[in-house]
Amino acid sequence: MFCLFLGWAAWAPSAVAGQPVAPEVGELRLDRAEDGLYLSTTLDLILPELAEDALYKGIPMFFVAEAQVLRDRWYWSDRQVAEATRYLRLSYQPLTRRWRLNISPVPFANSGLGVVLGQNFDDYSDALSAIQRISRWKIADSDVIEADAVHTVNFRFRLDMSQLPRPFQIGVAGRSGWNLLVSRSQRLAAEPAK
Description:
single chain, alpha+beta, 43% strand, disordered N terminus
């Protein structure tokens, strides 16, 4: 019996270590400022293996970060007062062996990138680390956040399959190897009366 226990104890950590870590949202911080409400967070995620393989073959991956601000109401369903969306495009250039991350407030179009923030990275882990950090993202203007009301912020981050090339959209439908979605909700308390 003791040998059986030792065998299980030796096997169990390796079985747990071999399983992929479930993606999650780290601490979600909401900061009120004079000009609005800001969101900061760190995502704990690993790209699905199929998505990572496609990236190394030069196919860009698209991500969407969404934040929704709801004002709590006791007499009816909560009212949406603000919504913010951020689009991210991660691509790998096999010839230069460099990674490029583009961030935009609007979806990427085939006609060009439009107004975006672009960053280059030498290493995949650096590019993924930049995706995982969201710092001081303005999600609402100050005029829609009532100081004496309680608000709820719903945050979602996902892999956007709709912007992949058409053959990939058809081939990945319903395949679990492409799933990446993390979400979290947090309440924003009313400000104390002054």
